[in-house]
Write a structure and sequence with these properties.
single chain, 386 residues, 6-stranded antiparallel sheet, 7 helices, binds ligand MTE, binds molybdenum atom
């Protein structure tokens, strides 16, 4: 957490006065996915993230202007934790598999590593990302390695009445349900069908290193295509139930409430945060001499195209510079010809391979949403051209 990028960002966050004098930042280091950024200057956004009010929960976020590689390095990958971080030692740690299975198991990390190895590059986004001025960077892309969940569940022998698979973390905290105060562990459930997806990994490696403690050491679930919350860290138990699991993070928090009109009547619907939604974000504006480029990312679905607009002007097609995959972000860029000096807004929208378009903030789907989760509307950033 003392990486140069973080300390530099901390400096950038020290308010508007410092920003006004340091409105341009010289990029250092390799620029793998944004090659033209090599010796370009980054023009910092005017709307820098506000100070994080919950440092114990949002430990770290992506600094968009520093994005220069398709893979997010471990020490720049955002961190969300809801409870105090558990200290797990590899020696004592076991993964239990229990509930409605014929062969309950208790596996060591070595047992898991001895099993079939699988790798997947997966973008994780917290479903609370970009809902507030302080959380603009709760997204990252990493190469995860581990063992497939499905084969392990098959070996455990899920019984005929098994419907749901619950993933338990080692972390816990106090919650009040009605008048009862309990100590609840972080846990998330998935239907058996969803859990058996061959894409799901029990991951013990992140970008070629053992899973870092902040990201769930020794083991976490990686559920490609699901919002961050489904990817349970510090995993200790997998349990098969015959009914849905309704813990805090399924049924109270991470619940999206929408107001809808059905047959002329207003109804509110409640859904648990699950699969990713289509989204994009402008990452940075760079300048080389007099020419400006806008770069960004798009994720949440296989990306077919990205459009960008300046102020209230027309949409321009961006060039996809890294195509991404169905579960890993794409990168894009577009030239910004002759910007006029002064303040401008930059907005992007992603178009998925199936034709779905990232919704505008006034789309009924978003306008009727009363909770902040799954805020996947167009993102607008502000920039000043001097
Ligand atoms: N055990 C446990 N797993 C967890 C969490 C947590 O608080 N405890 N937070 C979840 C949420 S809300 C997100 S967005 C992702 C963040 O993963 P990261 O910190 O590795 O980026 O982890 C998920 N898994
Ligand atoms: Mo999250």
């Amino acid at each position: 957490m003392t990486s140069p990028s973080i300390s530099r960002r901390t400096i950038l966050r020290q308010g508007g006065a410092a920003l006004a004098t340091v409105s341009v930042l010289r990029l250092a280091g390799p620029a793998h996915a944004f090659p033209r950024a090599q010796d370009a200057e980054v023009v910092l956004w005017l709307d820098q993230p506000e100070p994080n009010p919950v440092p114990e929960a949002i430990v770290r976020q992506l600094a968009w202007e520093e994005l220069d590689s398709w893979i997010t390095p471990n020490d720049e990958f955002f961190v969300i934790k809801h409870f105090a971080q558990p200290e797990l030692s590899e020696g004592d740690w076991r993964l239990e598999i229990g509930g409605l299975v014929d062969h309950p198991m208790a596996l060591t990390l070595d047992d898991l590593k001895a099993r079939e190895r699988a790798e997947a590059t997966v973008t994780l986004e917290c479903s609370g990302n970009s809902a507030f001025p302080f959380n603009k960077g709760l997204v990252g892309n990493a190469a995860w390695a581990g063992t497939p969940l499905a084969t392990l569940l098959e070996e455990a022998g899920v019984q005929a009445d098994g419907r749901e698979v619950v993933f338990w973390g080692a972390d816990a905290g106090e919650q009040v349900w009605r008048e009862v105060t309990i100590t609840e562990r972080f846990a998330r459930g998935m239907s058996l069908d969803d859990a058996l997806s061959p894409a799901n990994l029990l991951a013990y490696e992140m970008n070629g290193e053992p899973l870092p403690p902040l990201h769930g050491f020794p083991l976490r679930l990686i559920a490609p295509g699901w919002y961050g919350v489904a990817n349970v860290k510090w995993l200790t138990r997998i349990e098969v139930l015959d009914r849905r699991y309704m813990g805090h993070f399924m049924a109270r928090d991470y619940v999206t409430i929408r107001e809808e009109e059905v047959d002329g009547e207003t109804v509110w619907t409640f859904t648990s945060v699950s699969r990713n939604r289509l989204k994009s974000a402008p990452a940075k504006v760079t300048r080389q001499g007099d020419s400006y480029t806008i770069m960004g990312a798009a994720w949440g679905a296989p990306i077919a195209a990205v459009d960008v607009r300046i102020d209230d002007g027309p949409w321009h097609s961006a060039t996809i510079t890294e195509p991404g995959t169905d579960v890993a972000w794409a990168f894009w860029e577009v030239e910004w010809a002759d910007p006029t000096p002064g303040e401008h807004t930059v907005t992007s929208r992603a178009i998925a391979a199936d034709g779905e378009v990232q919704p505008a903030p006034d789309d009924p789907l978003l306008a009727g949403k009363t909770t902040y989760w799954e805020s996947n509307g167009h993102i607008t950033r502000r920039v000043e051209i001097v």
